[in-house]
Amino acid sequence: MAASSRAEYLRPGGHDLFKNPTFRASTLGGTLFRICVGAMPFLTPLMLQLGFGLTPFQSGLITFAGAIGAITTKFMAKRVFAAAGFRTTLLGAAMVTTLVTVITGLFTPSTPHLVIIGVLLLGGFSRSFMFTGVNALAFADIDDAEASQATSMSSVMQQVSLALGVAVAAAILESSIYISGEALQVADFHLAFYIIAGLTVIATIPFIRMDRNAGALVSGHRLKTMTAATVEAEQHAVK
Q1: Sign of torsion, CA 108 109 111 115?
Q2: How far is CA 27 from the centre of its chain?
């Protein structure tokens, strides 16, 4: 009897979490998206320094624009998610992030620095929306019994995916050098950005398949038009 209880306690249940469509979309799409995001802080300053000949200080001043965009998002994220919902906001942010990544791959040493700063500012803005939405969505439809396990899994995936972003970016550059047989060129960085943009598009697939009102109890989307009985029914369904 004791052995049976112990086996029941130790039995892994991570697969049960992935039966939740909201958690599954957040984990799969969010992991791939974080890999793409993790590649950007590696590729962008490296291109500015090695490809454009800027100093580390100049490169840092330019790429700091992304941090400003990310901070700005925090002041409006709650209202945006409440108005549009998780699915619409995440898809919109992913589209902007993909566009920004492609545009970054078009930069040349002659591109005005103000243009680069503007694009990176927009990229930081959209990526922050994705981060905020994915992190909140992971727990939107998780009940109290699974919250601890979901938190652990989500934290591990976040750390691993961000680290993989640097590894993926480095692998792309290394492969490009190996194929061309030449030293690192601006074109190698352009190729890396295009590949990262393609991976960002793939990362949106789980969110496209997600229900339009997923996580509504957390985002507040449509709650103003829903009756009290409907809200109560959904809350009971989550529990």
Answers
A1: positive
A2: 10
And the tokens for 2?
């004791």
The neighbour count for residue 202, using CB atoms within 10 Å, is 12
**Side chain identity at 206, as an amino acid letter?**
P
Nearest to 140 by CA among 196, 48, 221: 221
Radius of gyration of the chain (CA): 21
Q: Say if residues 122 and 100 touch (Cβ distance below 8 Å).
A: yes
Annotated domain spans of the chain: 19-238
Residue 120: name the closest of 61, 165, 161 by CA.
Answer: 61
CB 72 within 8 A of CB 125: yes
Least confident of 2-11, 68-77, 146-155, 206-215: 2-11
Domain 19-238, CATH number (from 2.102.10.10, 1.10.10.10, 3.30.420.40, 1.20.1250.20): 1.20.1250.20
What would the two tokens of residue 170 be? Answer: 């480095």
Structure tokens at 3: 């052995």
pLDDT in tens, 75-119: 887 888 888 788 888 899 999 999 999 999 999 999 999 999 999
Structure tokens at 181: 């047989």
